[in-house]
Amino acid sequence: MKDDILLSRRTIRKYTSKPVDDELLNEILKKGCRASTTGNMQVYSIVISKGEDVKKELAPFHFNQKMVTGAPVVLTFCADFNRFNRWCEMRNARPGYDNFLSFITAAIDALLVAQTVCIAAEDEGLGICYLGTTTYMAHKIIEVLRLPPGVVPVTTVTLGWPDEYPEQADRLPLEAVIHHERYQDYAPGDIERLYSQKEARADSQQFVRENNKETLAQVFTDVRYKKEDNVHFSKILLQVLKDQGFMNQ
Amino acid sequence: MKDDILLSRRTIRKYTSKPVDDELLNEILKKGCRASTTGNMQVYSIVISKGEDVKKELAPFHFNQKMVTGAPVVLTFCADFNRFNRWCEMRNARPGYDNFLSFITAAIDALLVAQTVCIAAEDEGLGICYLGTTTYMAHKIIEVLRLPPGVVPVTTVTLGWPDEYPEQADRLPLEAVIHHERYQDYAPGDIERLYSQKEARADSQQFVRENNKETLAQVFTDVRYKKEDNVHFSKILLQVLKDQGFMNQ
After folding, report:
1. How far apart are CA B232 and CA B230, in angstroms?
2. Contact A94, B227 (CB under 8 A)
C-alpha cells in the first residue's frame, strides 16, 4: 500500500466516467473478505450495483445524493444471517440467530468488511463515499435490492475514479476521542478546548451563517441531524429489524 | 503500506512482552481517525487500557480470553454521543440523539475507526484480535471503564507484537458473499457448493469430532453460538441501550 494512504485520504463524491474493472473490483473485495469476522461465520453480503436501472431505483432512498447515479459502482453492505441459516437448516442444525445480538454481530461483520474494501480501493487510487442514508431508508433499499429475511443493509459505499481533489475534512484533536485506562468524562473546559479549532474554521463559520444559526452545534441539531428525523427513522429501523427477523428475544 | 498486508493478514492471539511505543500507538490512532464519520461528528471514543489492573478487571467480561491480559494494549471502541451532546448543550443547541438510529450511527462510526486502526497497526507489524464478547457483556464493560450515558462499547481489539504465526483462517469463496445488481437468494445447490470446501477441511472435521456433533453447522448452533445465549445477551444489550439513553423513540 502507498505509505500515507490512511493519513492523506479524503472522501470523493465526484467520479470520472471511467468504469471500475471487474478484476480490480474482485481483488479489492477479496481483500475486504480477509477482515476479521465473528467465529469465521462471515455473516455479511455485498450487493454490487453498476446498472443504471438499479442505481436510479436506489437514488431517491439515498435522498438523491448525486454519488449514487454518478458513481460507476454502488456497494451495499448487509448484515446477512440468511446464507448461514440456510446452511444450518441443510445440515440438521437449528439456527438461533433471529435476535438483536445476532443483528449486531452481523452488522459488525459487514462494517469491518466495508472499511477494508474502502481502504483497499483507496490504495488503488479509487475514491469512496459512505452514505449514511442506508440506515434511514433500509426498508426501501430492502425492496429495491430484494433482500430476504435475515438480511439488513447497514451501509452503502459509492466507488469510482476521482474527478475532484477536495480539501481534507477537519478532525478533532486526537485527545478528544481517546481515553487512558478508563473513560474520563468531559468538563466544560475540555469541550471548549477540544472544539475551539473546529468552531474557528472559516468553513464552519460560513456554515453557521448560511444556515442562519447562532452556533455550529445548532446547524447539527436544527438542520442536519434533527431530533424529529432521528426519532422517525429510529422507529422505521426497529420495524425493519423486526420484519427481517431479528427481534425475537 | 506493505503491498499484501490486507491479503496476508491473520489474527494474532499471542503477543511478546515488548510494549507498544506511545508514539507509534498515537500515529496508528491518528490514521484511524481519518476514517469516514457521519457528518464529521466523530461520535466515537477509544479507551486505551494498558495497566494490569484495568485489564484484569476487564478479563472476566471477555470470558477470560487470554488476549486481554496477554496483550500490552486493549482498545475498547465505543459509540459515543456524550461528548457531542455536551458540546451542543454548551452551544445553546438541543441534541436529539437519545434514540436507536443515533446509536447505530455512532456504532458505525466506532467500527470504521476500529478497522482502520487495525489495518494501520498490522501495517506496522503489530498483531490484533477482535473480541466479540464486548456486545455480550457491555453492561459490565461500562462499569469497569466508567462509561457515562450516551456511550456504549461496541467492540474491543487486543494489540501487540506477534508471538505466533498461525495458519491463515479459511474463507468462503468470494462468490458466496457477493451479489450482482440485486440479492440472489441461495438455492440448496448453491449452499452445497459454497460450503463444500469449508466442510471438507481437516480442521473443520476435527472440530466436528471434538465437539461430538454430526455436522460443522451443529458446532455453531449447539456449542459456539447457541440460541439461548443469543436470546439472553440480546435482552441485556437492549437494556444497555435503554440504560445508556439510546431508546427514546
Report:
1. 5
2. yes
- Touching check for A187 and chain B: CB below 8 Å? no
At residue B79, φ and ψ (nearest 5 deg) are -70, 125
Please give the order of strands across the beta sheet that includes B127-131: A178-180, B44-49, B73-80, B151-160, B127-131
pLDDT at B2: 63
Checking ipTM against 0.95, whether it exceeds it is yes
Cβ separation of A99 and B234 shorter than 8 Å?
yes
Instruction: Give the pLDDT of chain B (249 residues) as one tens digit per residue.
Output: 666 899 999 999 999 999 999 999 999 999 999 999 999 999 999 999 999 999 999 999 999 999 999 999 999 999 999 999 999 999 999 999 999 999 999 999 999 999 999 999 999 999 999 999 999 999 999 999 999 999 999 999 999 999 999 999 999 999 999 999 999 999 999 999 999 999 999 999 999 999 999 999 999 999 999 999 999 999 999 999 999 999 999
Give kind and range of the element (H or E) at residue B129: strand B127-131
Mutation site, A55, A77, A154, A179, interface B, largest B CB count within 10 A: A179
User: What whole-number distance in Å separates Cα of residue A118 and Cα of residue B99?
Assistant: 28
Q: Judge whether A181 is closer than 8 Å to chain B, CB to CB.
A: yes
Closest-CA residue of chain A to B5: A1
User: What 3-state class would DSSP assign to A134?
Assistant: helix
| Chain A residues 48-77 within an 8 A CB cutoff of chain B | 48-51, 54
* Residue B162: strand, helix, or coil: strand
Asked if the Cβ–Cβ distance from B220 to A41 is below 8 Å, we say yes
- A189: which residues sit within 8 A by CB, 6+ positions away? none
Inter-helix orientation angle B22-32/B100-123, to 10° = 130
Residue among A174, A196, A221 with most chain B CBs within 10 A, to mutate: A221
**pTM for the whole structure:** 0.98
Q: What is the pLDDT, as a whole number, of residue A152? A: 99
CA distance B129 to chain A (A): 8
**Residues A86, B214: Cα–Cα separation, whole Å:** 17
Give contacts of B 188-247 with A, CB under 8 A. 188, 191-192, 194-195, 214-218, 220-222, 224-228, 230-231, 233-235, 237-238
- Nearest chain A residue to B128, by CA: A36
Domains of chain B: 5-167 (3.40.109.10)
Q: What single string gives the DSSP state of each residue in A151-192?
A: EEEEEEEEEE-BS--PPPPP---GGGTEEESS--PPPHHHHH
